[in-house]
Amino acid sequence: MGRDLASWCISRGLETTLVKMTDVTEGLIDKKTEQSIQADIQQKLQETDRIHHLRFISYPQFLEEAATCEWVIESVIEDLTIKQGVWAEVVDYVAAEAILSTNTSSLQVKEIATNLPKQVQERFSGVHFFTPLSRSKLVELIPLDQTTPQYINQLEQLVDKVLAKRFIVSRDVTGFVANRMGFYANYEAMYRGEARHWPIPKVDALTGAKLARVKMGPYRLTDLTGIDLSESALKAYRQNTFLAEFFPPRTQHHALLKAGYVGDKVGQGYYKKEQGKRLAFDFETREYRQASFPTFPFFEKFESGDWEHNLDIIFTEDSPEAHFMWESLRNVMYFAALNVGRAADDYRTIDQALIWGYNWTLGPFQIWDKLGFHRVKERIEVECGPLPDWIQDIQGGFYSEDRPLDSDNSPQAIAEKILWHHDHQTRLSQTKQNSLVLELRTANHALNLAVLEDILAAVDELEQGHYEGLVIIGEGKHFSVGFDFSGFEMIKQAPHPSQKAKEISNLGYEVVKRLKFARKPIVAAVRGHVLGGGAEIALQSTRIVAAAQTYMGLPEVGVGLLPAGGGLAELADRIYQQDDSRFEKKQKLLALFNTVAYGQVSKHAQHARELGFLRTEDIIVANERYLLQTALSMVQMLSQAGHISATNIRYQALGQDFKAVVSGLVKNWRIGGYVTDFEQELTNRIADVLAGGELPLGVEIDYEYFLELEQSHYLELIEHDLTWERLHHMQVYKRPLRN
Questions:
Q1: How far is CA 615 from the centre of its chain?
Q2: Widest CA span in the chain
Q3: pLDDT at res. 25
Q4: How many angstroms separate the first and last alpha carbons of the chain?
Q5: E strands, 389-542, where?
Q6: Of 41, 79, 120, 448, which is the most buried if we count CB atoms within 10 A?
Q7: b vs e for 656-687, b when ≥16 Cβ sit within 10 Å of the residue's Cβ?
Q8: How much of the chain is helix, strand and coil, in % rounded to 5?
Q9: Could you give the CA distance from residue 62 to residue 65 in angstroms, rounded to a whole number?
């Protein structure tokens, strides 16, 4: 954790000192060890040159310099005696105003600080960082009763503004909030599954993504963290009088512990991989068998992303598997209700802990609302017993349109007026600053014809009304994953498929042109997945404001198509407009060709900038909490600066000259067996668009010309049998087909 934490602090621009606590001779660290650790940290950085912000010193050296440190974070092994010993010595050397924190996930902070002087306890607290820090959003803050409000506020500001993380404040209890809730959700499902003698894959299939949790079920997650660590945590929970009844003993996994099969770190646990196949441990035979993840008839009733519908099926379906899923939801909701006032001050904190820390789609109280507050309350009271008094004070539900969980990124929380609200489609609102916010609200974060029509209507409203500008943002974790597969089914089922394809394509091109050439500023506020058509919507916007965790790309080759929603046209247009030599433009187009031909998706927002999806003038927001606010500020700034709409500029195409270079490259790929015949055709079509077609070198073209080229290739590919094979395979198996 120390290295991971150091790398994140460096990436946030902090001068960071990493202290080596052990294996130090005469207070010095050998050069080889220092170089090895620096190399390990450097590969974690998004910008590797930031490694110069790191100093690596020994513990004796640190004590000499400790008085200069503003924030001291101890992150030694989770051993109470060792942590107490470190702090007993360190407090004699640090500055009187320094903020002091212990990073722990399992020890109570008051026990670590029990022997510290009162004046030290006033600026001491626990922090619980989640790994990997580059992807995890949450930090738990655990102040002592003695920690002063001044230092709590300083710590919150550091985590929020400097480290750019979301935070919650937890009470100093076993497991704090996130681990207490997350561990219980996994443990109780495994306990009930083993009581039924159900195989491991069945339990994981029932208690993963379909319950609005992570895709991995509890057994797979436990392999990831370690069965041995899970067992240690269990002992701590069972020692607590209140918690003991929620963690009844399990014994089936003892055979794995005895054999040392404790999870991924040793190559096997509840699961293992053998010759590329995943095997699951069979508790009955004590052998590994091929893992088969079952499906059940009621799964077919689920609608992708429609949580109210899917949860209602779980609530009402009469089958052993549906009952099991309901019990998983019920038990976590009941446990969560009991922990308000014990682990967390309010129910929002519990939902935030599981969404930001465990990457759940919905927290237990959000699920409660979607199932129907009163019917869930009544059923839990019948099946589990009385609920705490605070539940009785809730009137109708935990959240509402004007009281969402994440008010910082909620358009309705800052809306002065709702102009329209189209269920499972879009919502357009007007802010107090007289900007418009269009929220994409499709169930599966996909674009469809209705959404495209709404985007056009939003641009009409923007240009016809007295508004400053428009922000487009996606509801939930993602901006948009691209065009909905239902659109392709519509084409396939149409009496005249090619005609239908052109109608839909024309609508898409009308949208991207209206966005690009809008008379007022349009800002796309993006996060999570920004793929395919979703990326193309963002690319046409006046500016993009991107959360650090933005995964942006044009992966259409995976479904047998090329980007045909203005993505290639926009990216090529940017390159051709630059004041570069032909050679420089050719090199940039080749880089773009490789990015699109490989369907490359950015690892983060900075990587999206390196790939060319984000421009220098686009903004990366380190803390997603400020995404919407920053986008609205960008609209105001562009409007006040006197926004001038884009114009259609002409430039000289590289034409056949560029195509010849790419054709030779792709031919070598085919000879080497790196691409199929169809993939060779696809990549040559991408090159044709970027080159400007079959034109001789130097012929003038423009953005509109690129759009026409895009569309012509798209309409030809949509009639290709191999394209439909890829589309079908992706829709059914959720992975690309190489054909």
A1: 22
A2: 83
A3: 47
A4: 43
A5: 415-422, 426-431, 436-440, 446-447, 470-474, 482-483, 522-531
A6: 41
A7: bebbebbbeebeeeeeeeebeebbbbbbbbbb
A8: 50, 15, 35
A9: 5
Which amino acid is residue 35, in one-letter code? Q
Residue 62 makes CB contacts below 8 A (sequence gap 6+) with 17, 19
Residue 259 has pLDDT above 80, yes or no: yes
* pLDDT 10s digits, 83-126: 999 999 999 999 999 999 999 988 999 999 999 999 999 999 99
Tokens of 48: 């590797």
* pTM for the predicted model, two decimal places: 0.90
Q: Over the stretch 351-386, which tens digit does the pLDDT of each residue have?
A: 999 999 999 999 999 999 999 999 999 999 999 999
Closest CA to 409 of 352, 350, 345: 352
pLDDT tens, position by position, 528-540: 999 999 999 999 9
Cite the active site residues.
536, 556
Look at residue 475 in the predicted model and tell me its pLDDT: 87
Return the residue matching tokens 């999206």: 608
Residue 189 pLDDT > 50: yes
Determine the residue type at 327. Answer: E
> Residues 528-548, buried b or exposed e (16+ Cβ, 10 A)?
bbbbbbbbbbbbbbbbbbbbb
Who contacts 281 (Cβ-Cβ below 8 Å, separation ≥6)?
A: 200, 256, 261, 269, 270, 271, 272, 287, 288
Cα–Cα dist 614/624, whole Å = 17
Q: What is the pLDDT of residue 155?
A: 96
CA distance 117 to 121: 6
Amino acid in the structure at residue 307: W
Q: How far apart are CA 382 and CA 360, in angstroms?
A: 27
| Rounded (5°) CA angle 654-660-663 | 125
Instruction: Give the pair of three-digit tokens for residue 84.
Output: 């107490």
Give the residue carrying structure tokens 């991107």: 546
Residues in a beta bridge with 546? 526, 620
Is-cis flag, bond preceding 132, omega within 30? Answer: yes
> Which of 57 and 510 is assigned the larger pLDDT?
510
Q: Give the containing element (helix H, strand E) for 11.
A: helix 2-11
